[in-house]
Amino acid sequence: MSGSDQAHWDGRWAEAEPPGDPDPWLPELDEMLPRSGRAVDLAGGQGRNSLWLAARGLDVTIVDVSPVGLVRASAAAAERGLELATEARDLPADGPPPGPWDVALIVRYLDRDLVRAVPSVLSPGGLLAFTQPTVTNLERHDHPRAEFLLGMGEMAALADELDDVEVVQLTEDWTPQGTHEARLVIRKR
Fold it and tell me: Which residues of 126-155 are buried (b: 16+ CB within 10 A; e: fewer)?
C-alpha cells in the first residue's frame, strides 16, 4: 500500500464523525439494486455506503487503503447489527478483489484503471455503480481538485471502453446537493 495514501486516510478517518447516511444517489438506485448477493464497496472509507448495502440484505465487503476506516466501518456495522467483511487493499496497485460480485460500488474515487477492471470481477448480470464529480464542479466548488475530477463526457467514454456490458444509466449534471457529477450504472452481460 502506498504509505502516504494510507497515512492520509488513516488521519482523516481517525478524526471523522461516525459514518452517516449513504451517498444520496444510492437510494435513487433502490429499484435496480438487488437485496441479496455479494457486493463490494471499493474505496469505501469508513463504510457509509457499505452499511446501506448491508442493511438491504447484501453480503458486503468494504475495501479501502485505510485500516482505520475499515475498523470504524466494522464498529458501525456491529452497532447496527450488520455484518461487513473488510479488506485493506491498495486499489491502484492491486485492482479489485476477485469476485464474482453482484454489485460493485465506486463513490467519489477516481481510478480509471479500476473502473476498466471491475467488469471482469462482476457476476453475469452484476452491476457497477460509479459516481464522480466532473471538472464543471469547479465552477462552484474548490474541491475536489481538478486532478480528481472527470472531464466532461469522460464517463461516457469510459463506458464505451468496457466490454460485455450494457449501460443501464449514464447521467452528467448538477445534483440536488449542488455538485456536478457523472453517474454510471452498467450491467455485465
Answer: bbbbbbbbbebbeeeeeeeeeeebbeeebb
Q: How does pLDDT run across 11-67, given as a tens digit for each residue?
A: 989 898 989 999 999 999 999 999 999 999 999 999 999 999 999 999 999 999 999
Judge contact between 53 and 42, C-beta under 8 A.
no
Which amino acid is present at 67? P
- In this prediction the pTM is 0.94
What is the three-state SS of 35-89?
CCCEEEEECCCCCHHHHHHHHCCCEEEEEECCHHHHHHHHHHHHHCCCCEEEEEC
CA distances from 152 to 166, 177, 181 (A): 21, 19, 10
Q: Is the pLDDT of residue 133 over 90?
A: yes
